[in-house]
Structures are given as structure tokens and as C-alpha cells.
Specification:
313 residues; 10 helices
């Protein structure tokens, strides 16, 4: 930037010299000009030319600096977005995946697994996550069935789920989850309250993560590769809860709008990938069948001409 300002100052200086030279030429054309003030027109042209050259150079340098600064800003933003995506990945690995796994186990024990099986088969990138849609997809008695599942989440069930979860971790040679220790000891209403609070905090955290991704603060492409399966499956599990929260609400007043937006985006991308995989699989099968047909044709041809070769011998 110092270079730019220097060039601009030089340009201004030459412009001043040019103006002074022009003024001197005007004075020289007056009736009684002093001979020493006269400046030739060729010198005027050289001064004007130099001023123009320095103007062009200054503009070129300024534009180059602006482009370089813009490219550097984009590179810094891209690097920052990738770093934020890595931080989100670490958050999932250290905390969120464990909480999702435990909540899935608890809701399965409560009887919600049947609802979850239906939710897991939706595979639709246009879900509205509303009470009306939930009842249309699962029937008018679905809300009663869901509320019954929530009542089944008792301190005893939470304790059983915590023990089962630790067994699963030990079978995978992982450390026992400290998050589940609370549900092994508390045998009163506090356990249910703690579970509901942790479950709501998890949804709020996912909403925050989805907001960072939707606003491109975090690199969405980086996160999708490793986390889209976990995110989509858990959002399907919580579809009834989110949908029932959004009963009788306008779109602008819905809860967890960022989760819904990201779910639609990733679900649509996943469905497109499934279609591509299916097409490629069918093409591979067709190619394998063509190769098998060619090999069989060669074998048939060899068998057909084999007797003639033996007769000649």
C-alpha cells in the first residue's frame, strides 16, 4: 500500500507540473511575455506523457493489490471454514455420536423403535417436520403411540440402557461412557428429567452445528463426507419429536429450522448418490453379462470346430 500511495503522490506531482507548464504557456502568449518564462510545447508533451504513464502504473498497481487482497481474503475464509468443519468433526467424535447412540438405545427400549423403523424408511428430502405431516404419514393414532413411548422412559429403563450401552462399548474395546453413569445411580424422577434435558441439549447443539453449515461458516462438503449418515439417521429418529413441536406453527415460527434445512440438503444429496450407485451397479452387471456372453460364444465356437480339427489330424 505504501508503494501505491507513493506512485499516486508522484502522479499528482507530475499533474501539478503539467498544469504549471500549461499556465506558463498561456502566460507566454500574453502581449509582453518575459522571455525566461517560455516553455516549449515539446517539453509540455513529455511532462504530460510521464504523468499519464505514472497514472496508468498507479492504477495498475492499485488494481493488482486489490485483486491480491481479495484472493487472500478468500483463501483465509476457506481455511477458516475448513478449520471450523474439523472442529465440528471433533465435537461429533468426542461427544455427539456417543449421546446419539445412547439416546437411540433408550428410545428403542421405550418402544419407539417401530416408529423409528418407519421414519428410517421415509428417505424424503421434502419433509416439512410438522404435526400435520406426521399424522398423515403415520396415522392419526401416531401421536398417542409416541406419547406412550415417552412415558415408558423410566429410571429403571434408563439404568438398563446405560448398562447395555457400556457393554456395547466394552465389546468394541472402548472406554465406559461417563455420560451414562448418572442413569445407573439415580432411581427417581430426576433421571427422566436429566435424560430429557440432555436430549434437548443435543438437538440444540445439532441446530447450532446446522446453522454454521447452512451459513457456510463451516465447510459443508468436508463435514458431509464423514458425518451425513450419523446426522440423517438421528434426525429421522427425532422426526416425531420435532414434528410435534411444530404443531400449528407457521413456517417462520418453526423450531429447528436449520436442522430441517440441512436434513433436506443432505438427504437429497444422499438420494442422488444412491441413484448414481444403482445406475453404475446396473451398468457393471450389464458389462459383466456381455463379457460372459462373449466368453460363452468363444467356447461354443471352439467346441463347434474341435471335431473338424481332430478329423484332419
Amino acid at each position: 500500500m505504501i508503494i501505491v500511495f507513493t506512485l499516486i503522490l508522484i502522479t499528482i506531482l507530475f499533474q501539478c507540473i503539467t498544469c504549471a507548464a500549461e499556465a506558463t504557456e498561456i502566460i507566454a502568449l500574453t502581449p509582453a511575455p518575459p522571455p525566461e518564462i517560455f516553455v516549449s510545447s515539446s517539453a509540455m508533451q513529455w511532462v504530460s506523457l510521464l504523468a499519464s504513464v505514472f497514472t496508468v502504473v498507479a492504477v495498475f498497481v492499485a488494481v493488482s493489490q486489490l485483486i491480491s487482497s481479495n484472493l487472500q481474503h478468500r483463501e483465509d475464509a476457506k481455511r477458516s471454514s475448513a478449520d471450523r468443519a474439523i472442529d465440528i468433526g471433533k465435537l461429533f467424535q468426542s461427544q455427539l455420536i456417543m449421546e446419539m447412540s445412547f439416546n437411540t438405545l433408550v428410545l428403542g427400549f421405550s418402544g419407539q423403535s417401530k416408529l423409528y423403523e418407519k421414519c428410517d424408511k421415509l428417505h424424503c428430502d421434502t419433509l416439512r417436520f410438522t404435526q400435520e405431516e406426521f399424522l398423515e404419514l403415520f396415522g392419526m393414532d401416531a401421536e398417542t403411540a409416541y406419547e406412550g413411548c415417552q412415558k415408558n422412559i423410566t429410571p429403571l429403563l434408563l439404568s438398563m440402557a446405560a448398562e447395555k450401552y457400556d457393554e456395547l462399548l466394552q465389546s468394541r474395546e472402548q472406554e465406559t461412557a461417563t455420560e451414562t453413569e448418572l442413569f445407573k445411580t439415580i432411581q427417581d424422577a430426576k433421571a427422566k428429567h436429566e435424560f430429557d434435558e440432555k436430549r434437548m441439549n443435543l438437538l440444540n447443539t445439532l441446530e447450532w452445528v446446522a446453522m454454521l453449515i447452512n451459513t457456510r461458516v463451516a465447510d459443508e462438503a468436508v463435514i458431509y463426507q464423514s458425518l451425513h449418515q450419523v446426522f440423517l439417521r438421528y434426525v429421522r429418529l427425532e422426526y416425531p419429536a420435532i414434528a410435534l413441536m411444530n404443531s400449528d406453527k407457521r413456517a417462520c415460527d418453526q423450531y429447528y429450522t436449520n436442522i430441517i434445512q440441512l436434513y433436506r440438503l443432505w438427504e437429497g444429496r444422499w438420494l442422488e448418490a444412491c441413484v448414481r450407485d444403482h445406475v453404475l451397479s446396473e451398468e457393471r452387471k450389464a458389462e459383466e453379462n456381455r463379457q460372459k456372453a462373449k466368453q460363452q460364444a468363444r467356447r461354443d465356437q471352439n467346441v463347434k470346430y474341435a471335431p473338424h480339427v481332430s478329423n484332419r489330424s
